[in-house]
Every structure is written in structure tokens, then in C-alpha cells.
Amino acid sequence: MRTFLSVLTVLAAIVAFWYAACVPMNIKGVLDTAERAGAEVTPVTSKERRNMGSFGLVASNSFAIAATFSQDRPRLPAPHQVVRELWNTTVMKKVTSKRSLVYHGQVTLKATLLGFVIGTGLGILLAVGIVHSRVMDMSVMPWAIVSQTIPIIALAPMIIVVLYSIGVQGILPKAIISAYLSFFPVVVGMVKGLRSPDAMQLDLLKTYSASTSQGFWKLRLPSSMPYLFTSLKIGIAASLLGAIVGELPTGAVSGLGARLLAGSYYGQTVQIWSALFAAAILAGLLVALLEVIEKTLLKRMGMSG
Amino acid sequence: MNTQTTTQAHAPQGAPEAVVEAKNLDLVFPTNDGPVQALKDVNLTINKGDFVSFIGPSGCGKTTFLRVMAALEHPTGGSITVNGMSPDEARKQRAYGYVFQAAGLYPWRTIAKNIKLPLEIMGFSRAEQDKRVEQVLELVELSGFGGKYPWQLSGGMQQRASIARALAFDADILLMDEPFGALDEIVRDHLNEQLLKLWARTNKTIGFVTHSIPEAVYLSTKIVVMSPRPGRITDVIESTLPHERPLDIRDSQEFIDIAHRVREGLRAGHADD
């Protein structure tokens, strides 16, 4: 109960800070609108106001503070505006509607999951190779690390163009960008996990003259499970990010990325923020789902810390 | 001299059969600080049915010698045979079971499934696996615990389960590397008693590494005293204690005399430090 209260306090502090930030961020826009509507504003002209600091404007026009929370296109939307937009575009819309975040969310989710499966599979295969072959350890690992230093935002359009030119389009290019981001944590985690059995455990198998594959299936793979799940949780979040980034350069019409892009074209800040929150909530749900699977499985395996 | 006592203790008929024979065994580990002589000129014969303890300070090569027998290390000089063949071949013939200091049971397997691990690897049939698990659980007095997970058992019970695992494929040599080192003394006494019973019932040849003089004297028919830098054998003591050994034999004069000789041997090994 006390923990719950503490968590609530932190959340309240964040929301309060956000509301407070809305005032100076939006005050200029509010005053411009008010001036056009004939209200008395100090200073009077927008040119004078432009040279003033936001806090000064707030101080001399305290009547306008309330209006900073309810603009149409605020620089920084207030929390309740984002929540209302989220509500209106999820619960209040049919899921097939082009304005429904659920619709856009599931488009992105499909690419995310496909990319996650490809990335995880690839990551595990590479890790198995790296653990069993010194040559692969020395030749693949450096490339895997280098691959993650290239900004995905630069690489994504190239991947899409190259794939399009060989006739691959639709969900797959997005999934591949997802996979590109999610395979790396899986490789790193699984290499560590597959190497986690200690010398004694490996010696024990040696005294049974166990083969490499018996060692893999009976010891290395089960031992790696806690590491795998840690990686999967990072991987799925990276997958979602990859799918969203994959939607940006294609001018996609559906998906959370498309929603972000459309919002920024038309200055619909509330729409951008609600799409951002939808993505964050989706990522949170996916990670939470993995956590439940992890807890259940590791408990059954007697490996929960 | 050794033939006499072991015959008395364990093998009633005929001449003892040598199971392990090491001749002028050398083992040098290359390290960053130069080569380390882990074993130097080790000569030892272990007969069938012997209970041999290896005792000595850290670095004396007692564990290394056990590992050489098990083909986990390979000597750089001299020769060693197990059942008349090389340790590698002996391993393929399932000549020995190995028990480590930690039980090392897989947490994701039940006790029964843990004991099945070597049986699965060696390709025993399902029915045979079940039969053997029952047998060895009974041997280590863990019948009825097959369905439990390792974390549901005490440290001593876990170590017994790991002994059962080593016994499951019926190797005639049991190699134990400080198996009770991590347990408290009361549990250790109990397990020592059980181990002697198990040895009497199964007629196995046992190689046992320990730090403890009372443990070595209580258990062994033959005590090998070793000393470090380089690792070598300084004394081999044939125990004159009877085969039947209640725990209070440790208060007898005979026991104290043997323990004294072991201590002397250990001290002699340290004299050149």
C-alpha cells in the first residue's frame, strides 16, 4: 500500500510538472489568439511579445493561463488533451476506422511481431554459432556490434528501397527493420546465457562422454533461459521502434509511424503525442506479457531468483 | 605390504586386481607465470574394491590426480591405466562415476530426472532408466524423493542425489572430489557413515579427495598423503581398521595412530616450504 502511494506520488509529480510546462510553452500562441479576438493583452503587439521571455508573458497576462491547457494545436498539449484524444481514437472509434489508434496499432504490431520472431530466431542461431565456433565468434560478433552503431533512421529508407527493387513490399520490409534492431540484444544475451554453465557442469557432461548437441539441449539451452528473457524484453521494445521507424520513410498510410508523420505534417501536436503514448503503452504491454511468460516458465524450471 | 591389508578388508578370494595403475606420472600446466608442475613422478596402484583417500594441502595435486584418472586432464609424462586401458577409453566404457564438491543438480529437473541425465546421454531405455533410478535412490536412502526438485532438498540430500546420479550407470569406479567439503560436520558424519555402507553393498572402487584427516582415516582402506610444489605423493598408508566401522571407532587408539601418521606425512611435505 505504501509503495502504491509512493508510485502514485511520483506519477502525480510528473503530471504536475507537465501541466506547469504547458503554461510557458503555449502562452505566446494563446496571447496571439486572444489579441485577434479583441482581448487586452500586454504587451499589445505580437512583435513586442516575440522579444519577451515566456515567463515574463505569463507574469503580465495571468488571465491567459487557463487557456494554455485547451488550445487546438498547442506546442505542448496538456495531459488531459492527450488522454481525451487517446480515448476518442480508441474506445470511441470503430477499430476498422482509419482514425482509430487501435487500427494503426495493430498494423504496427503485426510488423513488430513478425520482426521480433525473425530477429529472435536469427539472434539465437547466431549465438549458437558463436558459442560453438571460434571462427564465428571472431568474425560475426564484431559485425553484429557495428550493425547497431548505424542510425536506423538512415538505414531504414535504404532497406526499403533495396527490398522494393527486388519486389519485396508490404509488411516484410518493416519487419526486417524490426528484426535488424531486435536480433542484437538476443545475440548478446544468448551468447552469455549459453556460456553460463560453469566448468564443473561441463566437466560432468564430459565424464558421461556427452556429445556437443546433448550438452546443448540438456545443459546450455535450459541454462540460458533467464538470459534469453532479459534479451527478449529489450528485443521486443526495439522491434516496435523498428516497425515505427520503418513506417516513416515509406509514406505509409497506416500504422503508428504513419500517424506520427501525418500529425507532424499538419501540426496536429495532440495527435502526435497520443500516437507516441499509444506506442509506449503497446511496448509496455508487450514487455509485461513477456514478463508474465518469463515468471511462469522460470518458476517451473526452478530458476526464478 | 598393501596387498595384505586390502585382501583382509575387502576382497576375500585371490590376489587383488589392479584397477588404476599410475607409473612415473607427470603433469605440467603451462601458465602465464611459467609452467607449474601439478604432478611429479606419481606412482600408485589402486586395487579393485579399495577405498582410497587423497589428502594434502591445496595445490598438492590431489584433485588433479583424480581428474587424470577421469580423463579430464591429460598427463604430460609417465603412464596411467584404468581397467587396463587409457583413461579416455575407460571413460567411453563408463568405467567411472564422478562426484564434484557441489551437487550440481539441474534446477529444472526433478531428482529422478537429474539421475536420469547420464542414462539419457548413454542411451538407456525408458524402462531401464526408471528401474535404475529406483535402485540408486534406495542406495542413497532417498526413496520417495524422486519427484522433488533440488531446491526442496537440504544440501546433504542434494549431495546424496548427486552420488546417486554417479552410481546410476553402474560404473565400478567412483571418483569423489571433496564431495562433503561444503557441508557441516554433523551432516558430513552421517554421509560418511552412509558412504561406507554404500561401498560395502556395491563393492565399488572409490577415489576420494578430502581436506579432513578424520574423514580420510575413517573412510579409507588406503590413504595417499600428498604435498605441493611440485605435487607428489609423500606417503601411502594402508589402514588396519576393520571393514565394519561404527562412528565411535574414531576414538580408538588404532584410529588415532593412523591419524597421527597422516599428520606426520602432511608435516613432512611442508618441511621444505
Please describe the structure with a list of short key phrases separated by commas or semicolons.
heterodimer, A: 305 residues, mainly alpha, MetI-like fold, 2 domains, elongated, B: 273 residues, alpha/beta, Rossmann fold, 3-stranded antiparallel β-sheet, 9 strands, 38% helix, globular
Short description:
Chain A is mainly alpha-helical. Helices cover 75% and strands 0% of the residues of chain A.
Would you tell me the structural class of the helices and strands of chain A? mainly alpha
Radius of gyration of chain B: 18 Å
Poorly predicted runs of 5 or more residues of chain A:
none
Q: What is the CATH architecture descriptor of the largest domain in chain B?
A: 3-Layer(aba) Sandwich
Q: Tell me, briefly, the overall form of chain A.
A: elongated
Order of helices and strands of chain B: HEEEHEHEHHHEHEHEEH
| Strand tally of chain B | 9
At the first level of CATH, the class of the largest domain in chain A is: Mainly Alpha
Number of helices of chain A: 12
What's the end-to-end separation of chain B, in Å? Answer: 31 Å
Distance between the termini of chain A: 24 Å
CATH superfamily of the largest domain in chain A: MetI-like
Question: How many DSSP-defined strands of chain A?
Answer: 0
Helicity of chain A, as a percent range: over 70%
**In CATH, what is the homologous superfamily of the largest domain in chain B?**
P-loop containing nucleotide triphosphate hydrolases
